[in-house]
Design brief:
Blueprint (H helix, E strand, L loop, with lengths): L13 H13 L4 H4 L7 H8 L7 H11 L4 H10 L7 H10 L2 E6 L10 H13 L5 H14 L10 E7 H5 L5 H14 L5 E6 L13 E5 L5 E6 L4 E4 L2 H17 L3 H18 L2
Parallel strand pairs: 1-2, 2-3
Antiparallel strand pairs: 1-4, 4-5, 5-6
Helix pairs in contact: 1-5, 4-5, 5-6, 5-8, 7-8, 10-12
Length: 279
Amino acid sequence: MNKKKIDPESSPWAPFGIQLRNFREARDLLQEELAPLLECSASHLSYIELAHRPPSRKLAELADIALDTGGTMLLMWYQLKNAAILEGFPEYARYEALAEQIRIFEINLIAGLLQTRAYATAIQMGDVRQGGSTQKLAEDRIAFRLARQRVLERTPPPLVHVVLDESCLRRVIGGRDVMIEQLLHLEQLATRPNIVIQVAPFSLGENRPFTQATHLLTMQNRKVLAYGETEQRGYIDRDTKSVAALDSSYDRLAIEAHGRAESLAFMRAVRRDLEWMST
């Protein structure tokens, strides 16, 4: 049977259709077999794969479940539905959803994968109040961030290693109650066997290897991708030499930062200080 080639630039929804078809074929499923799992007809699925019709959010969610994509299709749906996400980041999020290992260093703010809804909302509403966003864009960004966190519930889950600069814990976002909830959430995540959270204390000073937030993804083929951001856009670095340098710096950071148990104690101490201040 001749398979119709899809031009990724033919429609805004063409990349979604191409990726959906790739996932389906990788699992040796016919459209007639997948369609019932997506609660649609085979013809409707065909139209979506060919980008003749836009998918619904529900279909994207069902596709992620049926094809075990780690949340990729819902992430793509959010990306294509609106332009609220920083340019370059949705591409990173698609790789992140499939990565075997996720390593993050964050400054000033808790890493997005680890944020509570209240914490994420406080950040976005602050941008709205300052005139940098609208209510609708803020809501889209919050939904995208929470959808991205589904990667943590994937089976099997990825190995996640996050190093937070001390500033992430000290900077109160959304008020004390929101921050206390966020710190409790970090403590709970830190007890999971596949998640390591470390704190890079201020005392590292100039010896801290990174000066800006950094993301490293190890894919199933052992390829390592790096991601960074400017104020205007995000970008993925695939260059072997530069990624290897970042990889080495991350290893050094993990050695210099507080250990796993010490970091958990540090987070608890910061939370208890906030609780005491709020009484």
